[in-house]
Amino acid sequence: MLIDGGLVLEGGGTRCLFSAGILDRLIENQIYFKNVYSVSAGAYIGISYITKQSEWARKSLLETVKTNKLFSWRNFFLRGSVINIKLMFDKIPNELLPIDYDEFFRSGQTLTMCLTDLKTGDPVYINEYADSKYLMDMCCASNSFPVISRTRFVDGRPMTDGGMADAIPIRKALSDGVTKNLIILTQQSRYRKKLKTSKLITTRYFRYRNFIKTIKERPYKYNADLDLVEELVQQKQAIAFYPEISLPKLITRDPAKLRELYDHGYEMGVEVVKKVKDFFGI
Fold first, then answer.
1. Helix 41-50, helix 17-28: angle, nearest 10
2. Is 0.85 surpassed by the pTM of this model?
């Protein structure tokens, strides 16, 4: 069933395995959203949701290769990124665990990814993909976290992780006229971002003044977006789900912790399916 509503996926590195567990429940129940808004790791798992490939995210991050091959400082010193870009965005989706690109392009769903323009500091939203390579290139750009990843270029414009400018793209969904949304977050419900700025990022990107301004304002925007999510839930314009267990760091290589995250999301997915059916009148 294709729901004329929105699915908003926060990023969060490997914490998105929580979201992946929920999405697998939706796939099993054939619940699909016409509009999917995603950022960073949320975009990576969002692709497999649209292709209807249950367990793809779990297998790609936990079973296909060892996590220390996907994420390591060795990758950074050899290739300029903690994430093994070639492995994660090429070899896994194209060879080891093939993505069903035909299904992606015929699904009738729109995947909007958020990137951050380093020159302007503004979010850039991509929702049209010429082919599978461009799709994965945009996904890679959205996942290019500052400092620990190389800057990616889109049409000659330097880009970095979409979460820097818009970590929870609910306002984009609303501006597109999508008034009812399922929002999956990767921080606990009481979480608020600390009002501090990473000196490492501001030093590394000192030439990009607009981006530095975005970074400094990021905690305020993120917390305001969390407040908006709560308001939308109270006004019955959205339903939102948060992890309820202790969370690992942004990038975690411990298979046990990652499995716990996925299993937690998968178990919560039972409740999510029930509430989605009720909220969207299925």
1. 10
2. yes
